[in-house]
Amino acid sequence: MARPRQFDEDRVITAAMETFWRHGYEGTSTRDLCDSTGLGPSSLYNTFGGKRELYLRALERYYATVTAEQVARLNEPGSAKERLRAMMLHSIDSDLDDAEGRRGCFAMNAAVEVAALDPDVKSAVRRCFDRVEDELCAVVGAGQAAGEIPSGRDARALARLVQSTYYGLRVLSRVQDDRKALLATVDSTLADL
Amino acid sequence: MARPRQFDEDRVITAAMETFWRHGYEGTSTRDLCDSTGLGPSSLYNTFGGKRELYLRALERYYATVTAEQVARLNEPGSAKERLRAMMLHSIDSDLDDAEGRRGCFAMNAAVEVAALDPDVKSAVRRCFDRVEDELCAVVGAGQAAGEIPSGRDARALARLVQSTYYGLRVLSRVQDDRKALLATVDSTLADL
DNA sequence: TTCGTTTTGAATCAGTCGCTTCAAAACCCG
DNA sequence: CGGGTTTTGAAGCGACTGATTCAAAACGAA
């Protein structure tokens, strides 16, 4: 029928996600995106529509990959608290790793930078957060069923408490390099469950 | 000796802070700053040096005003838990208020958007966070002395736990409008102390 | 009033912004 | 191979970026 594309759409979105993740929405120019994806501007606009649409696609990709990994990590073998700890530990170590560029959590970055200005971004970010919350809830529920966590309190409420502390720690990790202090807070949270 | 300035430097910094706060660092242009401050570009550059320096001054101003208000709110009359609750409640209501433009916490915005790229911004933000942490620690200590909070655990550790949950809630408030759910998490945190 | 100093506004710098246009190239189907 | 369709690269759109220049204006001190 017609000329086929020379690029893999998934690869392009992944490359765009990396760029947005590292430099933010306003900090990323269309030329940056062309450079990192290897696409010319016409291909980029022809395929995705524009910078904003590509950003939304990048957030979807984040949900499908990184958020999925977080969920998977919560479902690895171990007690409920061990699994909660593993997820938080992994994120903190990732946040503090210079080799990863200290880019933090892409969904959180989008929440802070763009969510107030763009309802679609807000929805995409909430989708990530809600998915994590649901899985935290499941893990807490399992812990309660196993007698590891007291059943007196609502699993959802406990999950939200863990979730808040978790994202708070990821904020602090942007300016606070003391890994031990962050880990101590993780353990305080788990001890309270 | 020479021609005096036609503007009040404090007013200019405050106006610049509002603009940076609302639109972020990259989202604010020098012309935006000229418009909001009323200064011409030459006056602005002559006085402050450039956009980055003005941003740092804006962060200092945030510390001197908003962070100071948070600290003051922690020192109002009432029990320790009442004071902790008052601070968190005030911030959440501020975050959810459309009339305030849903701009969140300027220090947190700076932490997420700029801190990784600019050590001076990182320091300025940490100054805000550390000030809040210290005051939280004092309040927790007072609660322990009054018998309101068990003395078994380190006040500093408890303060950091509250602080993490606090900033986590402010992240969630960017995409989550359910005030009751956020407040429930505040109460869960306080109940655990 | 005159001098020396600083501030101010207007104009403008080269470079970049997000985005568009368009003709040539590349493909599949018949 | 020819016809129809899509993708591609290059060039460029007007607007805006952070920053600078410079002469005129506005003051205090002598």
TrEMBL record, chains A, B:
InterPro entries: Homeodomain-like_sf (IPR009057), HTH_TetR (IPR001647), Tet_transcr_reg_TetR-rel_C_sf (IPR036271), TetR_C (IPR011075). It comes from the Bacteria. Residues 29-48 bind DNA. Keywords: DNA-binding, Transcription, Transcription regulation. Residues 6-66 form the HTH tetR-type domain. PROSITE patterns: HTH_TETR_2. The keyword Transcription regulation applies. This is TetR/AcrR family transcriptional regulator. It comes from Streptomyces flavofungini. The lineage of its organism: Bacteria, Bacillati, Actinomycetota, Actinomycetes, Kitasatosporales.
